[in-house]
Amino acid sequence: MKPDGTGAPGRGARSEAPRGPLVGIRVLDLTRALAGPYCTMMLADMGAEVIKVETPGKGDDTRGWGPPFEGGEASYYLSCNRNKKSITLNLKSARGREILLELARRSDVMVENSRPGAMEALGLGYSDVCKIAPGIVYCTITGFGASGPDRDRPGYDLIAQGMGGFMGFTGEKGGGPLKVGVAVGDINAGMFSAFGILAALFHRARTGQGQRVDTSLLEGQVAQLTYQAGRYFATGESPTPLGNDHPTIVPYASYRARDGAINIAVGSEALWKAFCHALGRGDLQADPRFATNRDRVAHREELTRLLEEMFAGMDVAAIRGALDKAGVPNGPILPLAQVLTHPQVLARDMVVELEHQKAGAIRVTGLPVKLSETPGGIHSAPPLLGEHTQQVLRELLELDSDRLAELSREGVV
């Protein structure tokens, strides 16, 4: 294993004891799809014991989201459920709900992303759970949040990207609305949820008080608008798609060279000077239309045309060589196959190989945050449906084999 606890690509990360700053924290994960599972995966990567509670015979919806499948397991599910234990529990049965509450009594965190009101209807909402586990941190992830006129609406990533503004300014200039190529609404809601859970655990460590964490896909999208929202607040105008151009920095875009495309980011006046010098274009630096970034934004089309004419006669390697020498940020536009085999990506352990019971050797993305003193790690493959049911109920609730067999016959687990 690497010093940070991850497995090197090709060598495989073996199942081992969790490590990281959250060792000793137990999380009940009642989530499915992506936002919730991504949140709990982040906690598991940092050492938390995450018990994924799934419906008997079915499990997380993403178990069926394929092809592709690896050994019968959907690659979508495998991508966001490592480091977890899986138990099956029928929450529509009274005994199943009793077992969940007993597990909650022994846990620190509970995360759910059901439709609004679904957990309350089962008697498993925050007000129900905190009666028997007053110190619990109970996280709810929904499409639109726990209040407001749209609170009861179901939400998926596509809906959030549209209602959160992202699709209004993503895409080619003059083109129609376009979503981002990964589920950023889900993923960022998951990250904001993990952030909220950690803040609540920090508060509990100081006061002993648990609390509810409430976030949504829509709020995560709005929070990320940052400078695009700032443009609207300053001008009253909604941003429109600009392709790969930056709305307030020029040149900061993708350009077509003779043999491919390149991204170039000239984010300061010093870089503009270095850019012009590196490419032998002192005329551009001296042109009053391009003297400052304010001027370059005002004359974006003229400058873009001149740069496109220049780059059309150059190879990507020549452009990159000149800009690298001058310290001007630039980079290739890589297909995913090259990203996931890139030396820098591999050097940072961002691809990890795991051994899965059914799928064999699988690869997952690594931990993007490295801690010097309490590193987390990827210690186990995504679990099979119900793989840990008997282990968890034996260890935490002290149920014997006869009782476990009875629960199975009754369809509780």
The H-level CATH homologous superfamily of the largest domain, spelled out, is Crotonobetainyl-coa:carnitine coa-transferase, domain 1
Q: Structural class, judged by helices and strands?
A: alpha/beta
The parts where pLDDT drops under 50 for at least 5 residues are 1-14
Q: In total, how many beta strands?
A: 13
* CA gyration radius, whole angstroms: 25 Å
Give a written overview of the molecule.
The chain has helices at 35-45, 75-78, 94-105, 118-121, 126-132, 157-163, 166-169, 184-207, 217-223, 226-235, 269-278, 282-286, 293-298, 300-311, 316-326, 336-339, 343-347, 389-397, 401-409; strands at 26-30, 49-54, 69-70, 73-74, 84-88, 109-112, 137-142, 211-216, 252-257, 260-265, 330-332, 351-356, 360-365. It is an alpha/beta fold. The chain folds into 2 domains: 26-225 and 342-409, Crotonobetainyl-coa:carnitine coa-transferase, domain 1 (Rossmann fold), CATH 3.40.50; 252-337, 2-Layer Sandwich (formyl-coa transferase, domain 3). The strands form 4 sheets. The protein has a 6-stranded parallel beta sheet, sandwiched between helices. Strand 3 (69-70) and strand 4 form a beta hairpin. It is elongated, with a radius of gyration of 25 Å.
